[in-house]
Amino acid sequence: xxxxxxxxxVKDLKKHFPKKEGIFNRTKNYVRAVDGVSFEINEEETFSLxxxxxxxxxxxxxxxxxxxEPTSGEILYSGKNILDYxxxxxxxxxxxxxxxxxxxxxxxxxxMTVKNLLLEPLLTHNICSKKEATERIIDIADKVGLSKExxxxxxxxxxxxxxxxxxxxxxxILKPKIVILDEAVSALDVSIQAQILNLLIxxxxxxxxxxxxxxxxxxVVKHVSDxxxxxxxxxxxxxxxxxxxxxNPLHPYTKSLLSAIPSIDPTDKRERIILQxxxxxxxxxxxxxxxxxxxxxxxxxxxxxxxxxxxxxSNHWVACHLYN
Length: 324
Ligand code: ADP
Ligand code: MG
Prior knowledge:
This protein is an alpha/beta fold. The chain has a single domain (6-96, 176-323), classed as P-loop containing nucleotide triphosphate hydrolases (Rossmann fold, 3-Layer(aba) Sandwich). The protein has 11 helices and 12 strands. The chain has helices at residues 57-64, 87-94, 104-107, 114-125, 130-144, 160-172, 190-207, 218-224, 242-247, 252-259, 300-304; strands at 6-21, 26-42, 46-50, 72-77, 80-81, 97-100, 178-182, 210-214, 227-232, 235-241, 309-313, 316-319. It has an 8-stranded mixed sheet, with helices on both faces. A hairpin with a 2-residue loop joins strand 11 and strand 12. The longest helix is centred in the middle third of the chain and has 18 residues, at 190-207. It is globular, with a radius of gyration of 21 Å. The mean pLDDT is 93. It binds adenosine-5'-diphosphate and magnesium ion. Adenosine-5'-diphosphate binds at residues 17, 31, 33, 51, 53-59, 282.
């Protein structure tokens, strides 16, 4: 893992949600949504988080923006731990860190025009004059492919793909450094998905953005990422460059996720590994390796000791006893 140009470093991040149980509604237990995750992201790269639903991807993304206050760990942005900042000081860096969600419509006020939706973050952060705001709005609308005429309309007048362009514009109007995209294209038709992904790739180059790309879709992730982290039950199971991860997956969990991708190649003779059962309850995780209950390679030791997450090949990390 190169440390030289990391813009974001996440160290041993944990987010445990209290789980109220029993007739007195007392906190007996915790949902270990994120349970000790570490990674670094280099400037202008796309780092993806993948894994089945419920493995803690969104909670990781939201914790970076302090939309959830992490339970413990460090989040270093430009070398400073943003979890140490007061709410007030955090507001100043918050505009550098933006998020794009799966369904922008749910977060857009239906009564506001696109122009006003784009103006709102500028007013909230009080960062420019009215004149500059208008210029910025026209500029960003143009960059995401919305016409001057379209920005006078309301979000409900747009299709899903167009609405996501509004969501992207709203995130980028503040000129962020890091954008967290949480299932940003997952709700779109495949043809629209490709258009939005290409737009995101172009914008990244143009605006020198760093992306944290969260998705359960390994085909999409392969297309956009420089590096990928595979999460399971709130932990990082494997992390590597996109090329290494897809051509040489090491963790049995990654292998099963990849073998489940539908192939369009009729000569593809890959062995299919069917993942049995569901992700365990994160408030009651198994002993030892979190994946062992579903792992085709599990042996006695996996129940006893948790595998250490280590770099087994250059820039290729894995937490599995097969590689200890
Ligand atoms: P993913 O994005 O990978 O699908 P999430 O981060 O949304 O996973 O969720 C991880 C786990 O944390 C899940 O078990 C989920 O039910 C739980 N969880 C997420 N948000 C909350 C919350 N606000 N309160 C309690 N549990 C939560
Ligand atoms: Mg999610």
